[in-house]
Amino acid sequence: MELIASSTQFIANSAVDVLPIVIFLFAFQRLVIGGPMPNRKQIVVGFLFVVVGLGLFLVGLEQTLFPLGRLMAKQLTDPEFLQGLAGRGAAALVWQDYYWVYLFALAIGFSTTLAEPALIAVSMKANAVSGGAIGVWGLRVAVAIGVGVGVSIGCYRIISGLPLHYFIAAGYLVVIAQTAMAPKMIVPLAYDSGGVTTSTVTVPLVTALGLGLAEAVPGRSPILDGFGLVAFASLFPIISVLAYGQLADLQNRVSKSDPDERDSE
User: Fold this and answer.
1) With the C-alpha atoms ordered 43, 49, 53, 56, is the resulting torsion angle positive or negative?
2) Taking the domains of the chain in order of start, what are their residue ranges?
3) What is the mean predicted confidence (pLDDT) over 129-156?
4) CB of 205 within 8 A of CB of 233?
């Protein structure tokens, strides 16, 4: 009964959130374009599916993904578990002792990104528009590597307590340098790749992991240290996709230069 009540509340909240969009679209159609909304029944049914889907999605976050992220972080940062791995006995833990957390963050960031529907859609469109020059799996793996590395570094920031802006500023300096050197074709796609990672699959687990980690590590505050992992998950895919474009460009240059070298010989 509690789950049903919670689901009903989330669906009702979703309806309230979607209502301004519905009012605006129908008012714009009537007052600006003129005439009734075409396919009105299908649009109404579609909005109902959206409302119910959003409500059930939020229930899933609240009942499963957020508690799962906290549980994983709590287990991985258990002092007895970490001290046993580090062989320190009762000694105080340092950031190096949390290497299992970094490996887990790398794996969870990589795997959730591969399953991101928005990334799959963008990869397919990029492949079609580029005439196959940008591979679907190549782009997906490049973005997933960036998210995995970014989330892992973000977990290190939470555990070490270092300021967030140091990492973000340094990351964007790397992006600026790469932008100047990367093929122009890949630059807009790389910047968009950071946005598609902050979607339905990645964000809930990454956020739950950050909050759970901040709650489990002594001396860390969930509100000050727990948030910010999504920023890492948005920044580092830009770096990885730009690097993917640079490597592909280098490979093309090498392949083009080989026949010339043979002819000169």
Assistant:
1) positive
2) 1-65, 77-264
3) 90
4) no
- The string of pLDDT tens digits covering residues 106-118 is 998 898 888 888 8
Q: How many angstroms separate the CA atoms of 197 and 121, rounded?
A: 12
- Quote the DSSP letter at residue 163: -
Instruction: Read off the pTM.
Output: 0.75
DSSP states along 102-153: HHHHHHHHHHHHHT-HHHHHHHHHHHHHTTTSS-HHHHHHHHHHHHHHHHHH
C-alpha distance from residue 190 to each of 125, 141, 180, 199, 256 (Å): 14, 13, 13, 16, 25
Measure the CA dihedral 83/85/86/88, to 10°. 40
Could you give the residue ranges of the DSSP H alpha helices within 161-218?
A: 164-181, 187-196, 202-216
pLDDT tens for each residue of 37-91: 778 788 888 888 888 888 887 787 777 777 776 777 677 767 666 556 555 554 5
Distance CA 114, CA 107 (A): 11
